[in-house]
Structure formats: structure tokens, C-alpha cells
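As a warm-up, study this chain.
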Amino acid sequence: MRVVSLAVLIIVAASPVAAHHPMDGALPTTLLHGLLSGVGHPIIGLDHFAFIVAAGILAGMIARPLVAPLGLIAGALAGAGLHLGAVSLPGAEALIALSVVLAGAAIFVGVKVGGAWVIAAFALAGVFHGYAYAEAIIGAEQGVVTAYLAAFSLTQFGIAVAAAMAARLLLDAPAWARTRQWAGAGLTAAGLMFLAQAAL
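Now compare it with the structure written out below.
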């Protein structure tokens, strides 16, 4: 419980970091830069990171630790494609924050829904996350874009699966209910802070 509380505190305290980009906002120009940016964006973009962790926990709770995160990846790639195709999604940042709030609330209450519904929800949220990810590579060469998309997909999948497997290991632990509630409450609080920032 203390570890979960500390992790949530770090997320909330660091949430003013909004750059989301390991290249300091510069456009990636090489394959290496594309890969590094794709790995870094889901980690230093704390709203993205919080949602990926929440999605992983939910995937573990519904016993779909490997399959459910694929919905997130598919949605993120679709969202990135929309942005790269010059399609506008108004309010994406607010919807990203809202996805963290909703995922945190679902964890808090111990949601019991079918895997198909969770995968669909992950995919829908992923569209807005992917749309925001693509902002970092607008104007980059195709090879760089491909490297970036592959890297952020693998990074998201790895984080989500790690969180899902951790949740699966804890499901039968005596303290699971309390740990789940702490994690859900913390993620919801972080999402509300992201939402407040998006409204500024």
C-alpha cells in the first residue's frame, strides 16, 4: 500500500510536466531519435503513463493481461493515423485526462465487466492518446514516423502487461482489495488534476 501511495504521489506531484517529449519538443530526424522518442513519450507523458498502468491493472483484473492491452495499442495507432492524416480531434487532452479518471474509478470499485467491453474501452481511449502522441512527429520523414509508432506501441504494451501481471499476482493476496482501492483512488485523483490542467 505504501508503494502504491508513493507512486501516486509522484505522479500527482510531477503532473505539471506537460512537455511529454524526450527530444525537448524538437522534431525527431533520425531513426534513433524516432525510437527514443517513441519509448520516452508514454513514460514521461504522465497522463499517458497513468492510463497505461491503469489499463494494465484492469486487464489483470479481468484475466486478459496479454489481450486487453492490444486494444489500447490498436486505438493509439488509429489515433496517431488520424492526426497524421490532418483529422482534428477537439478536446483530446481533456479526454485523455478523463480516461485516467474513469480507469482509476473502475479500479477503485473493482469493475466486473466482460473482456470485450474493456478492450473496446481501451481502444476508444487509445485513439485520443495516440492522437496526442502523433503531435511529436508531425512533419517527420516516414521512416522516423514508423520507428516512433513501433516504439511507442511496444512501450505501451510492455508497461500495460507488467501492470497486468502484477495485478494478477496480487489478486489473491489478503490486502488486494485495499491496495486496489488505493491505486484506483490515486489514479482518479491524478486524472482529475490532469483534467484541471487541460481546462486551463
